[in-house]
Amino acid sequence: MAKLWFVSAPLYSHTDWGGFLKTAHILHSQGHDVTWVSEPPLRDAIAAHELPFAAIEQTGWLWPPPPQPDLSQLKPQEAVALRYRRALDTWLSEDRVAQGVASLLDLAARVGKPDAIITDPFLSASALAAEKLSVPMIVAGWPAQANLDAQALFPVQRDLSSDSQQRIQRLCDRFSLEGVYFSKGAAPSIVSPHLHITYFTSQWYMGESAVLLPQTEHVGGQPDAPDDPPPDWLQAIPEKQPLALITLGTIFSGDLGFYAWSAQAAARNGLLPVVAIGWHPITPEQKAELKRALPGGTRLLNWAPFAHVLPRSRLMLHHGGMGTTHHAIVHAVPQIVVPHAADQRIQARRVAQAKLGLNLSAHDVRQGMLQEGTKALLEADWVTENCQRFARQMAALGGPTRAAELIVQTIEQVKR
């Protein structure tokens, strides 16, 4: 049996990626020595899944980011450059990444190094520590992609490309490494030559098919079967009443206007809104204002059990987080995605390309297109049929069980 570290940023959303945590749980149930490694805030969440947890001081992920300056005071090109730089700092702040590497090396010194590190796609510390420990690194939740052509980048991206390359080189020099788990192209990223697992299908990446590398394996996924009864508030809603699930996940949940506009759009089209606002702190005044803006009958919650709510939902309106998007897909629920940051724009684009729903901008929302989009999707039976077909394709690939098989196979191949 293999000794495996699953390493993630200290955010619950980074345990998902469509099946990251489930894969660890399956390997653990098969008798492998699995440990989830992250910072202390994740301890209770991982313990709830009955997985061993090793707390380290730092993973190298910058969160929360520093307060953002007033973009209205910047020139447009300066605002764009700032957005890209802040994104780069999140996964490649040198001192923080170095602390993350040191934390992982310290853990290995205490408990022994693993047979493999299976990592969150954006943890630079995992890539450096795996090389230093001479263990294979496997990326869960993101495909391996070929190097980008520098000429295809915007000028601001080319500038940051040079910056990111220099940061990686300085980190490699600090730990006497070559950077074998980083791509060498214009836009460096974490790349494993062994295995990248995505919890979607090859069709999901049809727009990037020309740049996907052969170590990428698509395993799809299936909906979770509930292991508990539906909550009382859900059982009180008549079975014939279709729902709309509205959420911004766990990080971007402060956009209260999105909840109100989405709920109004859903209610005007005959759906009962279920609004999950997460645990983002809001003042009593803000919450009271949100309640006044919601249509009658709306269920306002901190958290909604997807396994119970999505089978009764006709539509999901959300931000485009990968885990949230994945849940909607495996439950065959049409989506309206309004991306707020980072890779959410990519998920939103893919939802539209796969004809599983709509990709709307914040400007579209302000122009009232949520209501129009909701009406259009509810009237388009072909979208529902396409969602059902895509969900069947996802299920046929094996999901986290197949991911677990691939991880074990890869480790055995590397050992030969």
Walk me through this protein's architecture.
With 416 residues, this protein is of the alpha/beta class. α2 links the parallel β2 and β3 (53-55). The chain starts with a strand and ends with a helix. The strands form two sheets. Strands 3-2-1-4-5-6-7 form a seven-stranded parallel sheet. It has two domains: 3-221 and 397-415, Glycogen Phosphorylase B (Rossmann fold), CATH 3.40.50.2000; 232-396, 3-Layer(aba) Sandwich (Rossmann fold). It has 16 helices and 13 strands. α3 runs parallel beside α6, α4 packs across α5 and α8 packs parallel to α9. It is globular. The protein has helices at residues 20-29, 43-48, 76-92, 94-111, 124-133, 155-175, 232-235, 256-268, 284-293, 306-309, 322-330, 344-353, 362-366, 369-379, 381-396, 399-415, and strands at residues 3-7, 33-38, 53-55, 116-119, 137-140, 196-198, 216-218, 243-247, 272-276, 299-301, 313-318, 335-337, 357-359.
Strand and helix layout:
Blueprint: E1 3-7, H1 20-29, E2 33-38, H2 43-48, E3 53-55, H3 76-92, H4 94-111, E4 116-119, H5 124-133, E5 137-140, H6 155-175, E6 196-198, E7 216-218, H7 232-235, E8 243-247, H8 256-268, E9 272-276, H9 284-293, E10 299-301, H10 306-309, E11 313-318, H11 322-330, E12 335-337, H12 344-353, E13 357-359, H13 362-366, H14 369-379, H15 381-396, H16 399-415
Parallel strand pairs: 1-2, 1-4, 2-3, 4-5, 5-6, 6-7, 8-9, 8-11, 9-10, 11-12, 12-13
Helix pairs in contact: 1-16, 3-6, 4-5, 8-9, 8-14
